[in-house]
């Protein structure tokens, strides 16, 4: 096999932070090479260097045997390097074909865009690699998975031989991920060299031929996936043994603590989003709410936690009707809420850790006297929560913004558990976290379940749902369309999540 | 974009979070601006004075001697140990004038700063100040038989409450229908001017009873005047409003940093979504904060009327700028108590140092000099807004010109 690309001793510093430290990386034509590492391990930096977005402080790059200097994305494109970013760089109001040919348009005699030539080229490429998209659809009307295909087509249109995909599955459903993998295999068989950036072990093992693991900016090892297991990769990634499977004590289901009946709520555009949800969470169990993003789960959770108006139906907490209660009253009633987006809602990034940890209880005697904050009590409380929840990288006075994502999430979880809730609503509690932090969050959720709290877990990760839940409820278009045991297969859940399982509804 | 959302060089915000890419650039800028410390505002002032110096140079004067004359005009040389005893009495008089102007600047600065801390932009300090001064002049010129102390309290409180109600209109509109407070406070500024023109204009309900041909209010009675503690009361000495302003600075700091109300205000200002999640009413905070801002600005009006103006003429209403200077004060002072104090002192000094009375006309014509104050005010606002701009340009520059990164 030919070396399509070689990176030797790449070092990149940002001030005192060494993002890449003498990284070697080689990529062959006709392989999928995964770049695996925790958040902040330096994967994106390395690929940004390859794409000419940053300039390395040290090291050399060799493309197809030739030493090169890549000082701009334009140069990278000319060298046959294509990049599919995590967040797509498409123009929403333009068509698929227009986006693909953008900046490299086929021109007709008058210098105008040759629409037919563009369409034809796009059609040819998409047929060749099974990337079905309609060239004349407008970007804002097509799904996220299709937008990703457009990004891939954009790179292929520019004759990319090396294709870099930055966390491509983060935005995809399970089915879309499988479709993407089919495309990637076709590209590989065609002789393209593909870099697949991810921190999901299962996917890496499934799609990649080889894996290079980065940790804290350094290359740890490059291994063939045939010789690797999830456990061995996790150990390389984190630097210690990681418990990937959650150990759970047998279920001790007790009295119901949260009972929801016929709940209706609307979304921000005032359209019905939750359309008659019934569900019950008992003390001592984890109920998972599984579904494809945008099927009303966010609105349901906001309604339960007092952040969204309830149009119809009832919310009963520990036998008392709390329908229509405010966010503050819901907390008082015993519902805690690990918010879906810790940076937008769960935390105030420019508040200190102590101030953030006081967000639920700043008005109580624990934190204040008659309207005056007790800084001393806030700091003492923060210090003990920091210790109990192993928040690293900060003192009580440290700004939350300075913490890593995992430690920010620990702060949120610490605060929501500290107010001793009966029901813990956890919305995507591990979103964007790395393996080590995910392990912590999972263990903590199970511990709270064993301690007798009722847990409503909303997650888009079907692995997470299946490994944590005692019962799985699938939500589709604002309704619960099925209940599954934790040993349900991915396929069963997938079918229900896309509306196919309605007949099985309990 | 995640690929280019990298840590600030040098880790200005500490070790960047692994998913720091999700943080908005606005939040980052806010942190950067707040964390900028004292260097950035000092640099801002320096640049503004530098640019002002160029203007002086263009008009054919010597910037250094002009600035020296302005400085002496502020009376701040009174604080310097080497000022000769012959110069001291004049310096004392000038310093009293500077501090008299500093008083309302502190209060209108707080009126803007408090709103900023809650994420609101109160441009209505001027209107709130004017409404407060109307109330003060009415209360101060009525109740002639009242004892001194209660009369001052009543007049000052009347002004503060009217200011609070006036600003509360904008707060209520924001809280209930989401009306943009920038627009509504600007409109209320004009309304306040016309209310004053009506009240004190010819034939107006509060026009001077004795001089029917002059558009001016009644004088406040001697019992409602603020005590002068430094200088001659007949020669516009320094009144005790200075202590009111200093107390307001302390109240501002304590409430903001030590009370649950201030905690809510800051939370709403930094992240309204998180505040709502934490059980706070964002709308209630908007209303409350605007009212408190109006309270400060109204109090500023009272201090001027009860401290040295003693009456209001419609001419003065039309040209008054104190509330607008408050915006520059708050911006330069970074919305903090200490910063507001020094920024107010700076603008107080500029206003009095360039006034006709204090500036030696042989060095620089005062007619030009008062414009210079306006120029410097404008430049400060420009540079303060620009440092946000400069940071964002720097950042986008790095994004557009990646090769520059390696040199940072």
Features:
heterodimer; A: 506 residues; Rossmann fold; 3 domains; six-stranded mixed β-sheet; 17 helices; 32% helix; globular; B: 408 residues; ABC transporter involved in vitamin B12 uptake, BtuC; two-stranded antiparallel ribbon; 67% helix; disordered N terminus
Radius of gyration of chain B: 23 Å
Percent of residues in helices of chain B comes to 55-70%
How far apart are the termini of chain B? Answer: 20 Å
What strand line-up does the widest sheet of chain B have? Answer: 1-2
- Count every helix of chain A, treating DSSP H or I runs of 4 or more residues as helices: 17
Under the CATH scheme, the architecture of chain B is: Orthogonal Bundle
CATH fold assignment of the largest domain in chain A = Rossmann fold
Q: How many separate domains make up the residues of chain B? A: 1
Classify the beta-strand content of chain A into a percent band: 25-35%
Q: What is the CATH architecture assignment of the largest domain in chain A? A: 3-Layer(aba) Sandwich
Instruction: Report the oligomer.
Output: heterodimer
Radius of gyration of chain A, in Å, reads: 25 Å
| CATH H-level superfamily of the largest domain in chain A | P-loop containing nucleotide triphosphate hydrolases
Q: Tally of extended strands of chain A?
A: 22
What fold name goes in the CATH topology slot of chain B? ABC transporter involved in vitamin B12 uptake, BtuC
Q: Based on helices, strands and strand pairing, what is the structural class of chain A?
A: alpha/beta
């Amino acid at each position: 096999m030919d070396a399509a690309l070689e990176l030797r001793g790449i070092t990149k510093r940002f001030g005192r932070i060494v993002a890449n430290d003498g990284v070697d990386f080689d990529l062959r034509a006709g392989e999928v090479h995964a770049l695996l590492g925790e958040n902040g391990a330096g994967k994106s930096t390395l690929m940004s260097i390859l794409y000419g977005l940053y300039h390395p402080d040290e090291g050399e790059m060799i493309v197809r045997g030739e030493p090169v200097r890549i000082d701009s994305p334009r140069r990278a494109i000319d060298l046959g390097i294509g990049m599919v970013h995590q967040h797509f760089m498409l123009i929403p109001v333009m068509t698929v074909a227009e986006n693909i040919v953008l900046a490299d348009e086929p021109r007709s005699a008058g210098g105008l865009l040759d629409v037919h030539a563009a369409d034809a080229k796009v059609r040819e490429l998409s047929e060749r690699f099974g990337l079905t998209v309609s060239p004349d659809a407008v970007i804002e009307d097509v799904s996220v998975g299709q937008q990703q295909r457009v990004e891939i087509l954009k790179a292929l249109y520019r004759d990319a031989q090396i294709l870099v995909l930055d966390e491509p599955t983060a935005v995809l459903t399970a089915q879309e991920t499988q479709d993407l993998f089919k495309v990637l295999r076709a590209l590989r068989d065609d002789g393209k060299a593909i870099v697949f950036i991810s921190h999901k072990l299962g996917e890496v093992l499934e799609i990649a031929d080889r894996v290079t693991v980065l940790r804290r900016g350094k290359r740890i090892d490059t291994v063939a996936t045939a010789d690797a297991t999830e456990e061995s990769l996790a150990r390389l990634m984190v630097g210690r043994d990681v418990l990937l499977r959650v150990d759970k004590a047998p279920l001790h289901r007790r009295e119901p603590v949260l009972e929801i009946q016929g709940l209706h709520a609307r979304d921000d555009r005032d359209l019905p989003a939750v359309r008659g949800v019934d569900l019950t969470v008992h003390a001592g169990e984890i109920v998972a709410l599984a579904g494809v993003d945008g099927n009303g789960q966010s609105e349901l959770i906001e309604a339960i936690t007092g952040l969204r108006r309830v149009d119809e139906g009832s919310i009963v907490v520990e036998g008392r009707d709390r329908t229509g209660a405010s966010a503050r009253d819901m907390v008082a009633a015993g519902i805690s809420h690990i918010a879906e987006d810790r940076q937008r809602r769960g935390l105030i990034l420019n508040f200190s850790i102590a101030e953030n940890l006081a967000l639920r209880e700043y008005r109580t005697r624990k934190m204040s006297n008659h309207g005056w904050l007790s800084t001393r009590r806030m700091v003492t409380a923060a210090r003990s929560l920091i210790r109990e929840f192993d928040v690293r990288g900060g003192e009580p006075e440290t700004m939350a913004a300075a913490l890593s994502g995992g430690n920010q999430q620990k702060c949120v979880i610490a605060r929501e558990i500290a107010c001793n809730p009966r029901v813990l609503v956890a919305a995507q509690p591990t979103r964007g976290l790395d393996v080590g932090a995910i392990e912590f969050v999972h263990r903590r959720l199970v511990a709270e379940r064993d301690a007798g709290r009722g847990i409503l877990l909303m997650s888009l990760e079907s692995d997470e749902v299946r490994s944590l839940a005692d019962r799985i409820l699938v939500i589709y278009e604002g309704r619960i369309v099925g209940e599954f045991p934790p040993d349900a297969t991915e396929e069963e859940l997938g079918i229900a999540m896309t509306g196919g399982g309605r007949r099985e509804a309990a | 974009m995640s690929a280019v959302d990298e840590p600030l060089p040098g880790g200005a915000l500490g070790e960047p979070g692994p998913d720091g890419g999700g943080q908005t650039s606005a939040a980052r800028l806010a942190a950067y601006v707040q964390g900028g410390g004292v260097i950035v505002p000092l640099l801002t002032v320096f640049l503004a004075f530098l640019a002002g110096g160029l203007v002086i140079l263009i008009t054919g004067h010597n910037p250094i001697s002009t600035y020296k004359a302005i400085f002496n005009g502020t009376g701040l040389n009174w604080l310097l140990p080497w000022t000769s005893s012959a110069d001291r009495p004049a310096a004392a008089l000038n310093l009293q004038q500077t501090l008299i102007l500093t008083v309302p600047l502190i209060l209108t600065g707080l009126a803007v700063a408090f709103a900023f801390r809650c994420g609101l932009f109160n441009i209505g300090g001027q209107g709130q100040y004017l409404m407060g001064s109307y109330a003060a002049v009415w209360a101060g010129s009525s109740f002639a038989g009242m004892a001194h102390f209660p009369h001052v309290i009543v007049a000052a409180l009347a002004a503060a409450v009217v200011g609070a109600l006036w600003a509360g209109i904008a707060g209520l509109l924001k809280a209930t229908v989401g009306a943009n407070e920038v627009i509504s406070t600007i409109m209320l500024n004009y309304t306040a001017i016309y209310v004053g023109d009506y009240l004190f204009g010819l034939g107006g309900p509060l026009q001077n009873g004795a001089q029917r041909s002059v558009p001016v209010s009644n004088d406040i009675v001697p019992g409602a005047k603020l005590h002068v503690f430094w200088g001659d009361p007949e020669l516009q000495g320094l009144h005790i409003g200075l202590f009111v302003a200093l107390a307001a600075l302390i109240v501002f700091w304590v409430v903001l940093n030590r009370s649950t109300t201030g905690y809510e205000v800051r939370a709403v200002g930094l992240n309204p979504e998180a505040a709502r999640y934490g059980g706070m009413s964002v709308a209630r905070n908007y209303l409350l904060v605007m009212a408190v801002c109006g309270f400060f600005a109204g109090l500023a009006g009272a201090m001027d009327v009860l401290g040295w103006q003693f009456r209001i003429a419609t001419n003065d209403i039309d040209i008054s700028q104190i509330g607008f200077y408050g915006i520059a004060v708050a911006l330069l002072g970074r919305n903090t108590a200490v910063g507001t104090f020094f920024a107010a002192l700076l603008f107080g000094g500029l206003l009095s140092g360039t006034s006709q009375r204090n500036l030696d006309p042989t060095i620089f014509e005062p007619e030009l000099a008062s414009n210079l104050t306006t120029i410097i005010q404008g430049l400060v606002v420009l540079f303060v807004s620009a440092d946000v701009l400069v940071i964002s340009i720097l950042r986008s520059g790095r994004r557009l010109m990646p090769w520059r990164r390696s040199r940072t």
